[in-house]
Amino acid sequence: MNQQIMRQGRDLFHIFHVTDGNLDFKLHFNTEDLTWILEEVSDGNTD
Fold first, then answer.
1. List of residues 6+ apart from 27 with CB closer than 8 A
2. Around 9, how many Cα atoms within 13 Å sit in the side-chain half-sphere?
3. What is the DSSP letter of 22?
4. What span, in angstroms and rounded, lies between the C-alpha atoms of 32 and 22?
5. E strand or H helix at 36, and its extent?
6. Distance CA 46, CA 3 (A)
7. pTM for the full model?
8. What is the pLDDT of residues 20-42, one digit of tens each?
9. Using 50, 70 and 90 to split pLDDT, how confident is the model at 45?
10. How far is residue 21's CA from residue 24's CA, in Å, rounded to a whole number?
11. What integer pLDDT is reported at residue 30 of this predicted model?
């Protein structure tokens, strides 16, 4: 798992890159309103 922190105005986002072994997920957590956004799902293939 990788984690980054990003700020947009007042909102602070924690960005997580996680995997279940087959798929990779990019998730954003907004610390202002406590919501999660699924930003990306990838199987690792470029096609």
1. 15, 16, 18, 36, 37, 38, 39
2. 4
3. S
4. 31
5. strand 35-42
6. 23
7. 0.77
8. 999 999 999 999 999 999 999 99
9. confident
10. 8
11. 94
